[in-house]
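Deviation from plan, reported transparently: geranylgeranyl diphosphate complex.
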Amino acid sequence: LDCLRADIDTLLKAAIPAVSGAPGRLNEAMRYAVVGGGKRFRPMLTVAVAELVGAPYAQALRVGAAVECVHAQSLIHDDLPCMDDDDVRRGLPTLHRRYDEATAVLAGDALLALAFDILADEATHEDGGVRAALVVKLARAVGQDGLAGGQMMDLYPPAVATPAHVLECETRKTGSLIRFAVEAGAMLGQCSVEDRASLLRFADSLGLAFQIRDDLLDCTGDAQSVGKKLRKDERMGRKSSVAMFGLDRAKAHASRLAGHCRDELSRFGHTGRTLHDIADFAILRAC
Ligand code: GRG
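Because the crystal trials were delayed, the predicted structure below was used instead.
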């Protein structure tokens, strides 16, 4: 993980060079958001799946960096006053607090563009068909049926939210990018249709479990470890899994999902061990 962190940072620093003038302010803000911080959970997944299917680390790293650009964009925009209005992220001032709102909007936009730029570059895969497929899959993961759609469901819940609504919202806003991180890793190498389907089911359970853990941490976590202000869901009346099911049932559901992850990985035997560890981390994490 330390190697992966360092390699992602090197790649992103090269992709976001320090320049002078107003563009320099933009690049500085982009770096602030994406270099050096975060758990790198999604790139870890891409690299682990790529290893499982025999794809080169360098390619998985590029896909992982692209995913982190989208992830950083979603966090920047999520923190804006028009959305969650947060002051702290990863233990530091949020981007619009450190710079200003206009810079935060533009840095997010530029990071989203950079993600597609990285994927479409020949260094990501020698086959243009694979690169095009990666671009399309990422577009779908972030768009109306993915992150943006999920965020909208979160901001504008129905008057009476149902369990199905909450789980669909969480699957879209968080699960979509986790699914992409897994699927993209598989697309870089060779695997059977059955293995790919199994990896996707693994990803879907993992994505939801990861968000339920996030909801649990918002309710019971330690702000210093998590690196942001907590109890937000309750304060803002958000329909999270904890608000919908209560702490115990939300925990039980996350454990059930981790079980589904393990079931899907059993076909890979020993080679799926890293993915097992990642799934355990997703539901036990304290940050
Ligand atoms: C991407 C086009 C586009 C729109 C974004 C703002 C928005 C629309 C979506 C918000 C989605 C969001 C913030 C979901 C929460 C996901 C989540 C659990 C974030 C925390 O992820 P971690 O724990 O964070 O991996 P670190 O800091 O470790 O990287």
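The chain has a mean pLDDT of 97. We consider this an acceptable substitute for the interim report.
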